[in-house]
Amino acid sequence: MSISEKTAEEAPPAAPAPGEPIKAKQRLGDRIFSGTALGAGLIILIVLAAVALFLIVQSIPAFEADTTDNHMLRGQSFWSYVWPLIFGTVWSSLIALIVAAPIAIGIALFISHYAPRRLAAVLGYIIDLLAAVPSVVFGLWGGLVFAPMLVGLFAWLNENLGWIPLFSGQVSPTGRTILTASLVLAVMIIPIMTAISREVFLQTPKLHEEAALALGATRWEMVRMAVLPFARGGMVSAAMLGLGRALGETMAVTMVLSASGAITFELLTSTNPTPIPANIALRFPEAHDSGVNTLIATGLILFIVTFAVNAFARWIVARRAEFSGAN
To answer: What Gene Ontology terms for biological process does this UniProt record contain (predicted)?
Structure first.
């Protein structure tokens, strides 16, 4: 072998041309990890598609069947049947969101910017534990303890603020009203909203906060000028995720609410709207034949509403991450 041939064999491989991507060597562990991650992502899509397909297929008979033979519809159209349920679902969830949002944001601000480190850690643990409490426990507490406690408050609201349509009507003697159910829902969604808001507040650039304080701003002025504008998208997404949780809650509302299926804005009476999850839980034991398909069709409506709310929340998060300058 000549010296030139030996030198050519020992020379390192030529460097890639400018602009040509460098391909990393694929190891066995890398291929296993990437395949596992891809499989996990596909499983989520497959499960979601399977649930949607099941709801759609099982809901078709509810739209095509004769309403006179459907013991759920009792001669009325499906949309006439489901509209009061949609109203009850959205109405109770909106009330819960209105009550929970300022409380959750206040707790998150206190934990992230006001509380001492040890107290903030303890409060964070408590919030996380509250999120792990089963909904049936909230239902028992709401129906047996919380509802009787609110009867006196409801009577006072009706007596002093009865001129407002929300507080008019005959007060329920049991306290099992749409307002009670909404307050229980508010307690249930506060932990998730607080956790998300807290993480967003902690991501505020320290330079922004220090610049505001260096210019003479007070703690609240710093929060108002630096923290809240930065976290606006995160707070909205937390509210939307909490709303999605409230829309799909079943057991707590079923155990607390004295449902009647009416469309009314009165909050203190025994005539209350019925949310879709509670209606499915209450009517499913007696459903048969096309009635089962009708309940599944209402579940499809709830699936679409909840999916739309969560998709809207994810869109807000992505839009905020793109335009906030955080990245």
So the answer is: phosphate ion transport
Cα 243 from Cα 94, distance rounded (Å): 7
**Structure tokens, 143:** 């129906």
Count CB neighbours of 248 within 10 A.
Answer: 19
CA distance 76 to 294: 12
Closest CA to 128 of 178, 74, 196, 82: 196
Residue 39 tokens, joined: 């499989």
Alpha carbon 94 to its chain's center: 12
pLDDT of residue 327: 39
CB atoms within 10 A of CB 245: 24
How far apart (Å, rounded) are the C-alpha atoms in residues 173 and 133?
28
Q: How many other CB atoms are found less than 10 A from the CB of residue 15?
A: 8
pLDDT tens, position by position, 112-140? 888 888 888 888 888 888 888 888 888 88
Q: Which residues contact 217 (CB under 8 A, 6 or more apart)?
A: 225
CA angle 228, 234, 238 (to 5 degrees): 120
d(C-alpha 79, C-alpha 242), whole Å = 27
User: What's the CA gap between 165 and 179, in Å, rounded?
Assistant: 14
Domains of the chain: 65-323 (1.10.3720.10)
User: d(Cα 115, Cα 108) in Å, to the nearest integer?
Assistant: 10
| CA separation for the pair 317, 233 (Å, rounded) | 6
Give a three-class secondary structure readout of 197-239: HHHHHHCCCHHHHHHHHHCCCCHHHHHHHHHHHHCHHHHHHHH
**Residue 83 contacts by C-beta under 8 Å, 6 or more apart in sequence?**
263
Coil vs helix vs strand at 134: coil
Beta carbons within 10 angstroms of residue 38's beta carbon = 10
With a CB cutoff of 8 Å and minimum separation 6, the contacts of 223 are 109, 113
Span 78-90, pLDDT tens digits? 788 888 888 888 8
